[in-house]
Design a protein that fits this description.
The chain has 256 residues and is of the alpha+beta class. 59% of the residues lie in helices and 13% in strands. The protein has eleven helices and six strands. Strands 1, 2, 3, 4, 5 and 6 form a six-stranded mixed beta sheet that branches.
Length: 256
Amino acid sequence: MIKYFMRKTIYKEFDKESQDMLLQLTSKQHIIELLCFMFWAVAYISPFIPLFIIDVCEDIEFSMTTNIAIITFMLIYFVGWLVSMKVFKRAMFGFSQLLSEKIYFLVCTTKGKALGKNEFNDIKQENEKLYEFIETQMCRGYCYSICFEICKALKKGYIEFLAIKRFSPHSDDGKDFTMHVLYVNKGWAFDTYSSRQYPIRKLHEIYKAKVYKTFSFEEISSKSYEEFREEQEPKIAKWAINNDCSMFWKGDKEET
């Protein structure tokens, strides 16, 4: 039921194949965001629950004073809620967003073998800004640099370049694939697009991937990100052209 609803709303612009991919990658994130948003709806209706119970229980009777007090309270609460929504709307929705980010990080992002508790602690100590990007799901769109920096911070594992099936509803260049990068460790991969970890084979299956090349920590340890990009971009661009794959690696923002 939930998947059907998401297909008809959040993913309605995508074809079925893309929807199947996105449901495996981002559905949990959307569900958590929705539940956190519903917190305010629950807070709004909760005072009405006792009134509903009283209404259906015909044997409960209150004095006129009590009835007036209840009605007054409800009016004050209702007006206060409307004022709060108008004055503190941005803060309220901002709180919901922060809450959903934290829950998603703890429930989804940290679960896996590529990045365990020790790895996250090491990343935080080595590169706090990188840790914040991962913790708040801001790493989407920066797969090249994020995965490179994770590998450098942990001094282990490797980064994998691969062409993944494109699921953007709008394709400007007509390519069926787009270049993506994963951080891989212990047979698991951290994916910046979903901010989650998967067994590497499972992620290849989801993305319908064609692997280009992997680079171990030892191969990149002596290079800065800019040096690595300048060295590898021509080779990767040539491979991408031959594999029906688009690649965006000229600016700070990548595609996936």
